Amino acid sequence: MIRSLLALIGLAASPALAQQQGQRPPITAAAPQPAAARIWPTREADAELRDVTFAAGGTMARVRLHYTTLGTPHRDSRGEIDNAVMVLHGTGGTGKQFLAPQFADRLYGPGQPLDISRFYVILPDNIGHGGSSKPSNGLRMRFPKYDYADMVRAQHRLLTEGMGVDRLRLIFGTSMGCMHAFQWGEMYPGFARALMPMACQAGEIAGLNRMWRKMAVDGIMADPAWNGGNYTAEPQGGLRTAVSLLTAAGGAPLYLQSLAPTRVKADAYITDRVRTDMATRDANDLIYQLESSRTYDPSRDLGKITVPVTWINSADDFINPRNFTMAAESAKRMPQAKFILLPESVDTRGHGSHTWARLWDKELVALLARSEGR
Which CATH number fits the domain that encloses residue 216? Predict the structure, then answer.
């Protein structure tokens, strides 16, 4: 996520750095040491989607999708944009998380894999996240119960209706965005010339992965201050329960042991991290973010994904454990898929390894090369 624990369940950025960049800290990934952030030339805008219908029922006359871009769209001889790359965040994250140094400084510069002098990079805030429409805007628990398929359809409308993009060079997705990438491959086959999903499974969210999500949601709802979503102040007890679970799920054991090798350091680190994260959360938004995964299961139609795919998980990811065989088995059902499991080390970041580009940037280069000309 996240910023995606929630992937982050997002970016594994320190709480202080995350605040400087206008994003909340990831709730499932271990925080790195602070780094000086480069200022990238970004543009921000809002697209308004009209008459949006949700799969679970309910409609909205207008849904706002906020997005950030880097680079300039290039048009081919037919006038179509041919250099667009969409990068999708995890649960609880925003597009801006991909401006953090450990990601952006390895990818967007001259000669780098997503050099913004060559590529048009699109960083959307998904429904329920960041600057896009979400429960905390006023509807609270009356906001339509969106799921991942609803979010992908909104992304498609953002591109085609709002930005004039009818094909993507690449979809790169982390955690929830990883799962969105598989849904894109099935719902809109061939729209993206290549897919790079990171830190997820291509099957139903069940077992422990579902259990900790449910515990987090139940923890919020069990707090009397939540009041059915009609709280006057954030339900602190419920949020603490949820954020604590998410932080544990996103932790990287070897890295955190090196970062906090004593009880005193460990206590100080986690106390500050949970407090900082809680201060950025809205309880209803978090419930919706976690519950949006409830219908996800791309396993039946993986054969529809025929474009080149490089799928990467990390061996120290609690959410997608190394001893699961489902990822390698699922990859075999996609004719051009390559599955990679990053070995655990003090340099990996558990669920947040997806945003430390030094761990996998060579694989991105290789994917772009093998999908060239498609």
Answer: 3.40.50.1820
Domain count for the chain, please give it: 1
Within a domain: 1:
no
Q: What is the pLDDT of residues 254-264, one digit of tens each?
A: 999 999 999 99
What would the 3-class secondary structure string for the chain be? CCCCCCECECCCCCHHHHHHCCCCCCCCCCCCCCCCCCCCCEEEEEEEEEEEECCCCCEEEEEEEEEEEECCCCECCCCCECCEEEEECCCCCCHHHHHCHHHHHHHCCCCCCCCCCCCEEEEECCCCCCCCCCHHHCCHHHCCCCCHHHHHHHHHHHHHHHCCCCCECEEEEECHHHHHHHHHHHHCCCCECCEEEECCCCCCCCHHHHHHHHHHHHHHHCCHHHHHHCCCCCCHHHHHHHHHHHHHHCCCHHHHHHHCCCHHHHHHHHHHHHHHHHCCCCHHHHHHHHHCCCCCCCHHHHHHCCCCEEEEEECCCCCCCCCCCHHHHHHCCCCCEEEEEECCCCCCCHHHHHHCHHHCHHHHHHHHHHCCCC
Which has the minimum average pLDDT: 20-34, 76-90, 123-137, 316-330? 20-34
Residue 101: give the domain boundaries: 15-370
Residue 278: inside a domain, yes or no?
Answer: yes
Q: What is the pLDDT of residues 297-352, one digit of tens each?
A: 999 999 999 999 999 999 999 999 899 999 999 999 999 999 999 999 999 999 99
